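Ticket #206: bound-state structure for fe (ii) ion.
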Amino acid sequence: MNNKYPYKVKSLPYQIVSLEPIIDKTTLSIHHDKIYLNYVEKLNLLIKENKCLENYTIEELIYNPYLIPPTIINKVLYYAGGIYNHELYFDNLSPTKNTQINGLFKDKILEEYKTIENYQETLFNIASSPINYHWIITTINNKNKIETIGLKDNDTSIPLNLYPLLVIDITEHAYFIKYHNHKDHYLKNLLTIINYDVINERLKKI
Ligand SMILES: [Fe+2]
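RESOLUTION: The complex was predicted; output attached.
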């Protein structure tokens, strides 16, 4: 995620059909090729009109909001957050089915939640919250402890000083075509195609 303006759409690290049947081709193509792409295009348009921001990466914009003129700060953070969260989400999914939590990430999860079932219960509780979160993000804090949070809109965990490890999009556009209102069913199935190698790599970089 080091690209600078003009920001480019990051290709999926797998074929658009390869998450079937968990995520259908139509949903994934709308999600990646229309919704995520739209955030990239909108941010590029904004930066084009505000050249003071053209030397920053997406992460630098989110980490340093004071750099952004007040008149456009909400829009810039919304589009940049949408790009940041979606790239993490698409990258931490795997075409391999029935993936198992493993490595250092598993150790850290067990340290915090004692069992994988407890951890997954936390994810389902966030998904079913009346707050209607758009993202579930399992993070690591600056004390090296796991924290799982729900976020709305395109907020990121960065302002909370939480480094994102596993990012799950629970916005309707991520699942509604196939799962309708059964968000819990989507989440249950999604947890079988998580790329834990990617998540363990994120942990190693901290
Ligand atoms: Fe999304």
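RESOLUTION NOTES: The domain at 103-204 is CATH 3.55.40.20 (minor pseudopilin epsh fold).
TICKET STATUS: resolved
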